[in-house]
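Async update (no meeting this week)

Hi team, since we skipped the sync, here's where things stand on the single-chain job. The sequence we agreed to prioritize is pasted below, unchanged from the tracker. I ran it this morning and attached the output directly underneath so nobody has to dig for it. Comments welcome in thread, and please keep replies under the output.
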Amino acid sequence: MPIEMLMLVGALLIIAGILASKVSSRLGIPALLLFLAVGMLAGSEGPGGLHFDNPGLVQSVGVFALSYILFAGGLDTDWPSIRPVLKSGFALSTCGVAMTALIVGWFIHLYLDAPLLVGLLIGAIISSTDAAAVFSVLRSKNIHLRGNLKPLLELESGSNDPMAVFLTAGVIMLITEPQTGMISLIPLLVWQMTAGAGLGILFGKLAVMVINRLRLEYDGLYSVLSLSLVPLIYGLASLGKANAFLAVYVAGIVMGNSAFVQKKSLLRFHDGLAWLMQIVMFLVLGLQIFPSHLVPVIPAGLVTAFVLMVVARPFSVFVSLSRSGMSVFEKCFVSWVGLRGAVPIILATFPLLAGLPQAELIFNLVFFVVLTSALLQGSSIPLCARILKLEGPQPYSPASEDLPGTACFASGAFHTVTIPAESPVAGKQLVDLNLPSGVLVVYIQRGATSIIPQGSTVIEAGDTLHIAADHELGADTLALFQGRTSG
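Output:
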């Protein structure tokens, strides 16, 4: 296809995906279903007629896109909100995923007459959940959940993909290398998860330090820099044999809960980038699907989806959350919100590339299970929240929430502070001051020049800082600016 046509077709597909997201919000179904539908309609057996059959490219696009989606999810994760559910989320994303894989795999082995390892492989592939699908439904119906349900679901879905990837790769290794023992996978699991989390913390802190120290001349370069961080972190973690997806996600959490230059614009940039990656990923996945190949797997797919949604997922949730203190209704809701999404379809390409005899059957079965889960569970989430009485109050959202410092202007006070030569803040960037919550430097008067400050703005001796705060500045804060000891 000529490059002009390739650009035109690609642009049209992305626009179709964007329009599909608007339709999905009105219908209350996950956008991923419509993204996949657009890809299938454009594919070999659809009216678009684009012949596409390249599992290797699908996997590469999926891994690349998923790394950016996980990084954006980490950036948007509020650490104080997930801290109370850290143990529960960790249990769901590890033990819960493993139990789901075992139950589904054992069922496929017993009742669908598949070899045990093949059953376990299918169970591992469909064991992780999709947060984007869940919250697109919740946002479209304007549903807010009670208590810690939302952060728990966010943490689980953002952190359970690495476990599913490990289990899938491990079972494929057992199939292709029969001499490998299952016990030998345990040290590998411990290393991948531990090293992945550790490298994520390290890379996240280094990224914040680099962004704050570079002092780039052009603001747009900060977006380019952050864009390069994701494949850099993923690649370095992979070279260290760590779980690269976990490293990327943890690095995002560390950065999202740190102060760095251009943070607000970078968060918006990566939010838009994550949407683009979702659209591209699902479009490519849809192109790879041949609808006629799904027909033979419908009976097995329906039974597998039923076992996954009604048996495996609830069992793993109730066991994993047995010590969480959550109510039965809350556990039921978490059980039902286990939507499957992009990751199982991407993982289903692993057997294809490994050359397993049943690979195509596994791919089509997994795709059908994902469609069934997204359609049945996704469309019923609002009803489930209402029936279980888990809807929370609408959060207060001021009309001017996008204006920086609005909360300070509403009820606080203005302060003017002149920076003396001996002040410890002289020569430092604004982002390095670690100002208390509710304190905002509105503008800086430097001689006859008024400066609208950014995180990279360097404070100089003689500057007059105009500060808005939602409270009177304490002695420690004044001492920070004026270079004297408090008290």
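Quick observations from my side:
The chain is about 65% helix and 5% strand.
The longest helix spans residues 185-214.
Reply here if anything looks off.
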